[in-house]
Amino acid sequence: MLFSELPIPPHFNPERVDQIWKVPYQERMEEALEWAKRYQIRSAIEDDFKIGLILVDVQNTFCIPDFELYVGGRSGTGAIDDNRRLCEFIYRNLGLITEISATMDTHTPIQIFYALFLVDGKGNHPDPLTSVTMEDVQSGRWRFNPPLAGSLGFDVKTGQKHLQHYTAKLKARGKYDLTIWPYHAMLGGIGHALVSSVEEAIFFHSIARYSRPDFIIKGDNPLTEHYSAVGPEVLDGPDGTSIAQKNVKFIEKLRQFAVVAIAGQAKSHCLAWTINDLLDDIQTQDKSLVQKVYLLEDCTSAVVMPGMVDYTDQADAAFQRFADAGMHIVSSTDPVESWPGIRG
After folding, report:
1. Orientation of helix 312-324 relative to helix 270-285, angle to 10°
2. Could you tell me how far CA 282 lies from the centroid of its own chain?
3. Which residues contact 129 (CB under 8 A, 6 or more apart)?
4. Positive or negative torsion for Cα 193, 195, 197, 201
5. Domain limits for position 12
6. Do 138 and 193 reside in the same domain of the chain?
7. Which residues of the chain have pLDDT under 50?
8. Do 80 and 192 meet the contact criterion of CB atoms below 8 Å apart?
């Protein structure tokens, strides 16, 4: 396969990556078809060296300033800079990327990681960013909110039992404690949508390469957190019955492509847990698959809330662990043909 980078299409405006706007689909379709004709870009079905690009939660709620969980990183402009580089990577490598998959964090108001789910002894709900430990639940500091039982289809006793089981399971698996997040990525809201510039780049790629994008919904189960695109944090309830399942199709993507590049938000949370779970599955199924994974380190940032939390060090440590396992840490600005293990 010949690796050749393309110019950035004139419609892309890097100054608009931090803004929300309507993509002019018909205009972009016509431009994409003309672009493909001008640069002799083939249909993706003709690729003999298939490259998959996985974008984790590149949504307004995480990437646009003043939204609920904007990932600014230590620079304060983390997700904005990441998405500018990401869009440019897609356009430069339009003829190389076979398929783009985008995960979509998807929530509704009644979920275990939202304030309404829990109350203290006085009926007060926890504040956003409260960490709820196994010990907090065992001591009664935080309890299941009784009025939610009917909506969730079980009784109050079952709700409390699930909360105890859930927090204990997180601790046993070495996961983050249950975090009460601000309401974000609400299904039907503008925070749930992809960043406009990224959505436009995905659309342009789809038209130019006749490649259907794959959108992966995650996070809508009310009884578990779901950072990773591979699967939720907890799969079973207190009685051992299944409450959720892994996305078995996700691991199969590694078998479809010669290269799987991964980017998105946040480096310390959804991206890190996705890669971690992916690595776990690879190691149990086929360790050779680890060599297919390329992490675009300059297209992701860690959660940093000045004066409150900074997950940068944890995120960097996770990426080092992934590299030690055999995954490749690369830059989006480097030509794909220069990435380790790839030969043009």
Report:
1. 20
2. 19
3. 179, 180, 181, 182, 305, 308, 309
4. negative
5. 1-65+99-107+184-218
6. no
7. 1
8. no
